[in-house]
Automatic annotation (TrEMBL):
Residues 1216-1235, 1295-1322 are annotated as: Disordered. It comes from the Eukaryota. Residues 284-365, 550-786 form the FANCI helical domain. This is Fanconi anemia group I protein. One of its GO terms (molecular function) is DNA polymerase binding.
Length: 1322
């Protein structure tokens, strides 16, 4: 070895060559081995050997090859030091280009063989391979087998055989790294990328991130889309496997998971970091990444969502990513909604995976150190909540009471945003501050739009993580400063949400009290209302020791994870002082505006129930306030002073004191206290004597006042209040306004006294007679008010909101209708005999239910308590149901009959409202509601366990009632009642599962009724057909039903060609001459729905074919086996065209019906055009015959529908513009603005149809060329655009013109206008 070094250092290379020639191969290799192992002067020795082997001589090049062949395995063996191996490879790389072609080919094959047998474990010598390949591809020609190949081709063969052989998992990363240095054509690169992606599954999880990194570097050469797709698909599969293992693992007790979850998540996190890093450096890769998701129609998985959110941190992609995600999410919800609403789509397509679930999974996965994803999650959450939150109504009004269930796609997307933020808040500490900041900022700044969704989120955050929130209580305190400027609903929501924290954080409580005190003196009315709200909330939640633990105090908002002992000795004393101080602040409100006082009166009852120790203080306040308006002189009438309760400002009169609410609050508080005392009395000790006396003092005084008021209110005539029939009630004058206010106050007082006396009466007859007297006074005043306020305008039946409490109403109705106790019989007969009183009770009940439906709560005590209001609904249901089903509709007395039926109708309306309310606000408690309705005992009671059975039991009850209605005489048919019954049936049928037996029975029954009922009542037929359609789409595709209905309408309304006799068909008796037009409009709305589904399916197929085309696998299909979706599409459209063909030949009334039909026709042609474009796309990728069904469809459209369309247009235009009789002509000549607007609308519909037909034909021509099938043979060219002159019409018009010298505008413009002028010129 030394000799070689010395000789190579010398000048004469001949000696060196001689010496090397004298060594045998074995000696040479052992020299190299020794030198390499010792590691000394190995570089110099190698240089010497190469120097003494000139590539020009055969011997020299042979020796060089030997050196290469020996050194490659030597470096790979792992016996050498790393630096030595690197030196050797470096030297060899420099000399590679000197090797002749055959040697290079031999070397390359050596590498390939080594890789195949897995000898390239360390990958050291692989660095040499790219140099060998590069040198190879530069060769002119190489012998290969028996022939010759160019170097480029030879390289291609090598790479091909390499990629199709087995790789040792250990060397995958080395090989990928190596290929980065090999010049590859795009085809070769694709081979390599596919091979590496296939190897993913063979590798250990830990080796995936470095491989991903190398692949991304390799993607700089091309194949970006393939690389990204491959990585995402791999992780998607791993996630699915891991999830399945978890599911099965629980049942199988597997000790070892093949994919440990935490390890997989960490690997995914690292892979995401690598990809994002690569995208930052290579914008082409970023564009490719976004393109994948634009084309693949949102084929997301938790991994790709996380990747998306990480990419969003790169500023240039942020907007695009969130817009894409927003689109995908809303599309997913819309698709889901469309599929849920249609059996046709459900049968065609399997349920798709929910994007919402994936996003929530991403949140769950981000726990494993995915900090780069969390920021994106926060942005996404707020992005969704901002974009899809509730919008302000007209004039900036916010809709009251958010419905509990997210129904529309927008609501679902907003809810998803909230869930993402809530889960993120729970899991990640670093983002908590930001989430809280942003939520509170939005609550403060978004004053113009509703913020219910943010309030809900904030409330959830407080409940789920109260202690975390206390750490950032300064942020909450900052928000308090804005309280007096925020809308009242926001303040209520915010305080309700924050209430659990006040019990544990004194600083928060103190800050809030300071702010509320300031707000008390705010110049804004809303600010003062906010202060009252806040103070009342505090009073409710800081209990004073000794307060009666009433069961009602477990209200929803006090539920919290914080359990603090507020009843400790010190606390309760402090609480008492604190509460009394607040009460003294609240007393100041009694001198403020009516609105502020009203809030106070509505809040006191709740405070008292939760904090009964404050009773004497509250009652004294109410009593002193009541004394101001009470007339103590027993002989004076009326007992209340109305003068002080109003105030005048200029010539305006305002309500100053809501007197009725004051009395109401006093009565409810008094009754509740007496009730509690009574129940607590048996165990009371004598030690509380003084307090008892004090309590008795105000109690007895109040009782005296109320009894005296009752007595004197019964005696008072309307004149005593200056309200009699002659009084003025118009809201235009100040006197009228004053009288209106007085009337409402007096009516309110009457109502409260009725409630008080009913409860005090304890079923005594004389008290009930007094109660009826009170009611008669009330009724008289209500009638006058109704009559007077209705004058001059449409009579307004809207009575002021009743002040009766919902609890009292349910008790009252129950005893009126259901109480059969002998002892009470006599007293109750007094109330029952007053028909007006019974009607009034039912009306108030319906009014309360309506309020609950619209706002989610009712007025009066317990109105805000969800459990109480639900109990009220249950009681109402059973009473109204009993009343409706048990008292027969036909009552002998004709005078009573009208009142009776309206009472039945009221009950039905109440039931309908109850069911709708329950579905909206208590969706999961429907079964509980139904189980309280115990109807007639002879029916077999349904098993409570089986909800569907129970639901169907009630459906049958209402079906029976409707059947009775329909089987009576036409004169006795009550349309309103029948419509209400149908509405109730449609609400209840929503509870049935479409797959259940009961649902099928329901459909059959509805079809039977539609076929047999022939009442000429369009409103009823409309509701019944709507029910039929809504059920039918959940059962199967509705096109066959459409066809039958269209045939019925055609035969009822007759043909546009008078000479054609339409064959009489009647599938559905409900369609008759009176109801056919209504039916036609409904049918057209269903056509619209079918077209929606067809459009959606075509769009889906289109995106599938485009993504298939961009993927490598071409989808081929023979014409014989047509795709099931395409087949279903074609069949749907075929039946639809036949149905429209019937309608187009029908003489529909001009106006809405005709325009709607024209609109649907133009939409149908647009859909057909879309389908044609789809087949053009298919033909471009796979030329072949079109499906026979599609050809039939084109034939049907061309030979049946289009010609009929043109004749219908002609008919419609002649009907539209030639007025018919003289009266119409005169009206036309008046030419008012509304008429011209309508004309414009009507004239627009026709060109639209013609345009869509022509577009359809245009694309058919393109398709004919592409598919080599002549589709235009079925089309007849139109004349509808031609300039038409109708000779007969023209002569008649000219004749008329000669007779009367005025032009007639009502002839059809297109046909006659220009000929007029020509004739005149002559």
């Amino acid at each position: 070895m030394d000799k070689i070094v010395i000789l190579s250092d010398g000048d004469s290379s001949d000696e060196l060559q001689k010496y090397l020639s004298s060594l045998t191969h074995d000696q040479l290799t052992s020299v190299i081995n020794n030198g390499a192992l010792k590691g000394k002067k190995v570089g110099a020795m190698m240089k010497g050997i190469l120097k003494g082997s000139p590539p020009t001589s055969t011997e020299g090049s042979g020796r060089r090859l030997l050196v290469y062949e020996h050194c490659i395995p030597l470096c790979e063996s792992g016996d050498l030091q790393a630096e030595v191996a690197a030196d050797i490879i470096g030297l060899l790389m420099l000399e590679t280009h000197t090797l002749p072609g055959p040697s290079l080919a031999k070397l390359a094959s050596l590498f390939v063989e080594a890789i195949k047998v897995g000898k390239m474990g360390s990958g050291k010598s692989l660095e040499l391979f790219p140099t060998v390949l590069t040198a190879l591809s530069a060769c002119e020609a190489l012998s290969y087998g028996k022939g010759e190949l160019s170097g480029e081709e030879y390289k291609k063969q090598l790479i091909n055989s390499l990629c199709s052989s087995r790789w040792d998992p250990q060397c995958v990363i080395h090989l990928t790294t190596m290929f980065r240095d090999v010049p590859l054509s795009s085809e070769e690169l694709q081979f390599v990328v596919e091979k590496v992606l296939r190897m993913f599954t063979k590798l250990d999880l830990q080796e995936i991130p470095p491989l991903v990194y190398q692949l991304l570097l390799l993607s700089a050469k091309g194949c970006k889309k393939q690389v990204l797709n491959g990585i995402i698909c791999y992780f998607k599969d791993q996630d699915v496997r891991q999830e399945e293992e978890q599911k099965h693992g629980e049942s199988l007790d597997l000790e070892v998971q093949s994919i440990p979850q935490d390890q997989l998540r960490h690997v995914e996190g690292t892979a995401i970091l690598h990809i994002v890093f690569a995208i930052r450096l290579d914008h082409e890769l970023g564009r490719e990444f976004l393109k994948i998701f634009k084309t693949s129609d949102g084929d997301l998985c938790p991994f790709s969502v996380a990747l998306f959110l990480s990419v969003a941190r790169i500023q240039r992609y942020e907007e695009q990513v969130f817009d894409l995600l927003k689109g995908v999410i809303i599309k997913s919800f819309k698709d889901e909604q469309l599929q849920q609403g249609s059996k046709f789509l459900q049968d065609l397509l399997p349920g798709h995976c929910s994007v919402a679930q994936m996003i929530l999974d991403t949140v769950k996965n981000s726990v494993f150190g995915w900090d780069h994803v969390t920021q994106g999650l926060v942005q996404l959450g707020f992005f969704l909540m901002d974009a899809f939150g509730p919008k302000p109504g007209p004039f900036g009004k916010t809709t009251e009471g958010s419905a509990t269930v997210a129904r529309t796609p927008n609501q679902q997307a907003c809810k998803l945003g909230g869930q993402v933020l809530l889960q993120g808040f729970k899991m990640h500490e670093p983002i908590r501050g930001e989430i809280l900041d942003q939520v509170l900022n939005r609550l403060v700044t978004k004053t113009a739009s509703p913020v219910n969704h943010y309030l809900d989120l904030f409330s959830d955050i407080v409940v789920s993580a109260p202690m975390i929130l206390l750490e950032s209580s300064s942020k909450v305190t900052e928000t308090f400063d804005h309280l007096s400027y925020l809308p009242l609903t926001t303040v209520q929501g915010l305080l309700k949400a924050i209430q659990p924290l006040l019990k544990v954080s004194t600083s928060l409580k103190d800050a809030l009290i300071l702010v509320l005190r300031k707000a008390m003196f705010s110049s804004q009315l809303d600010g003062r209302k906010s202060a009252v709200t806040g103070f009342l909330l505090l009073l409710k939640n800081f209990k004073v020791l000794g307060s009666l633990a009433s069961s009602q105090s477990s209200q929803a908002i006090s539920s919290s994870q914080i359990q603090v002992d507020v009843h400790a000795r010190y606390n309760s004393a402090a609480n008492e002082a604190f509460c009394l101080e607040i009460l003294s602040s609240l007393r100041r409100c009694l001198g403020q505006q009516a609105d502020v006082r009203l809030m106070l009166y509505e809040g006191f009852y709740d405070v008292l129930r939760r904090n009964s120790q404050l009773a004497s203080s509250i009652m004294q306040t109410l009593l002193s306030q009541l004394r101001r308006y009470y007339e103590p002189e027993q002989d004076l009438l009326p007992p209340v002073k109305l003068e002080p309760s109003i105030t005048a400002l200029g010539d305006q009169v305002y309500l100053q004191e809501p007197l009725a609410h004051l009395v109401s609050c006093t009565v409810h508080c008094l009754l509740w206290l007496q009730n509690m005392r009574r129940s607590a009395n048996p165990n009371a000790d004598d030690s509380d004597g003084e307090e008892e006396d004090e309590g008795e003092g105000y109690q007895s005084e109040l009782q005296t006042i109320l009894e005296s008021m009752t007595r004197r209110m019964v005696k008072s005539e309307l004149e005593d209040f200056e309200l009699d029939k002659s009084a003025e009630f118009s809201t235009a004058s100040s006197v009228g306004v004053k009288n209106n206010i007085y009337a409402v106050l007096v009516m309110g007082v009457y109502e409260i006294l009725m409630e008080y006396n009913f409860i005090k009466a304890n079923y005594s007859k004389s008290c009930f007679q007094e109660l009826v007297e009170l009611f008669n006074r009330y009724h008289k005043l209500a009638e006058i008010l109704k009559e007077k306020s209705g004058k001059g305008r449409v009579p307004s039946n809207k009575s002021p909101r009743s002040l009766l409490s919902s609890g009292f109403i349910s008790t009252l109705l129950t005893v009126l209708f259901r109480d059969s106790a002998q002892s009470r019989e006599e007293a109750l007969s007094v109330l029952r005999s007053s028909g007006e009183f019974v009607r009034y009770a039912v009306t108030v009940a319906v009014q309360k239910i309506q309020q609950l439906e619209e706002t989610g709560h009712t007025d009066g005590p317990d109105g805000q308590n969800a459990d109480r209001t639900f109990r009220f609904l249950c009681d109402m249901t059973s009473v109204l149901m009993w009343r409706y089903t048990n008292i027969p509709s036909v009552v002998e007395d004709a005078g009573k009959k009208e009142k009776r039926s309206s009472l039945s109708l009221l009950c039905l309306e109440g039931l309908l409202r109850i069911f709708t309310t329950c579905q909206q606000r208590y969706p999961d408690r429907m079964a509980q509601l139904l189980s309280t309705m115990d109807i007639s005992e002879d029916d077999a009671e349904p098993d409570e366990g089986n909800v569907t059975e129970m639901n169907f039991f009630y459906i049958r009850q209402f079906q029976r009632a409707l059947f009775t209605q329909l089987s009576g005489d036409k004169e006795e048919f009550n349309s309103k009642e029948a419509q209400l019954l149908v509405s109730i049936l449609s609400v209840l049928s929503r509870q049935l599962k479409p797959s259940s037996q009961q649902f099928v029975q329901m459909i059959r029954w509805t079809v039977k009724i539609c076929k047999e009922t022939s009442f000429e009542d369009s409103a009823f037929s409309k509701s019944l057909l709507s029910l039929l359609f809504n059920l039918h789409v959940l059962y199967k595709s509705p096109v066959s039903l459409l066809l039958e209905l269209c045939q019925d309408i055609h035969s009822q309304l007759g043909d546009i060609d008078p000479s054609v006799e339409v064959e009489k068909q009647s599938h559905f008796a409900i369609v008759n001459s009176k109801t056919a037009t209504t039916g036609a409009l409904l049918v057209l709305s269903l056509v619209d729905r079918v077209l929606d589904e067809v459009d959606w399916l075509i769009a889906r197929k289109k995106s599938q074919t485009s993504s298939d085309r961009s993927g490598s696998g071409e989808v081929t299909q023979t014409a014989g086996q047509q795709d099931p979706i395409e087949k279903a599409l074609t069949l749907q459209l075929g039946t639809l065209l036949t149905a429209l063909n019937e309608l187009v030949q029908t003489t529909l009334l001009p106006g809405t019906c005709t325009i709607t039909l024209l609109r649907e026709l133009s939409r149908t042609y647009t859909t057909l055009t879309t389908l044609v474009k789809y087949y053009i796309q298919v033909c471009a990728s796979q030329p072949g015959a079109l499906p026979a069904r599609f050809e039939k469809l084109v034939k049907l459209s061309g030979s049946h529908l289009t010609p009929q369309c043109y004749s219908f247009i002609t008919h419609a235009q002649s009907g539209e513009f030639s007025g018919g009789d003289d009266k119409k002509k005169k009206k036309r000549n008046d030419g008012n603005a509304a008429g011209s607007a309508k004309l414009l609308r009507e004239t627009k519909a026709v060109p639209n149809v013609i345009f869509s037909i022509e577009q359809y034909e245009k694309y058919l021509i393109t398709l004919s060329k592409k598919s080599k099938v002549n589709l235009m043979q079925y089309m007849k060219l139109s004349t509808s655009r031609d300039f038409r002159i109708n000779r007969a019409t023209l002569d008649a018009a000219l004749q008329e013109q000669d007779d009367s010298q005025e032009t007639n505008e009502s002839q059809e413009a297109a046909e006659t206008h220009e000929p007029h002028q020509k004739r005149r010129k002559q």
